[in-house]
Write a structure and sequence with these properties.
Length: 231
Amino acid sequence: MTLVKVGILDSGLAGAVAARAVASAAFTLGPEGEIERGAAEPDLIGHGTAIARLVLEAAPEVEVVNAQIFSGGATTTAAAAAAGLDWLRIEGARLVSMSFGLRGDRGVLRYACEEAARAGIILVGAAPARGAPVFPSSYTEVIAVTGDARCGLGQISTLYNRVAEFGACPRPPANLGDRPIGGASFAVGHACGILARALVDGRIASASAARGFLDGMAHYRGRECKGAEIG
């Protein structure tokens, strides 16, 4: 079994999930427009906690690293995301969940993804099923995942889509209360859980291997409306 650190670049962690984090930090916009690093606060949104739960349910052996870039609301900046990703790289994350999408292509985030990829980190980002591309999932270094209603727990689809490479289960973890019911962001959590399990078991060790692994296990190929079950 391989020791694996999984980075959660999200709204933070709360409760029992927060206790699983081996390192935590928050990245916020300072008064002069600079990014400040500070202590992470409890997850008030619940999103990061839900994503981490999906990863831990699939691979309970992993160590979670918490990079909080959303705090009181559902918005962040490319600079905060880049700073959080840089920190996760330094902390030794092997896999990073980036379960959000920004409309603009920003050099600072693109460079952070390039640096993370050069360090051998597997990056997974949320992508829309159709429509305009978002970032960081549109960068070549990032595995782009969207929600696919055909997929159940542990299932993947290969989409041949210009904005999303793979689909995964769009549903949140059980007992989430009044949180959002599902979508691409939770699909990222499910895909990261699958990849975390494969990393722990030594079945993959790189982003290219991760892509091949997901494609090889695909239950469906093509878009939802045209896909056919293959396994």
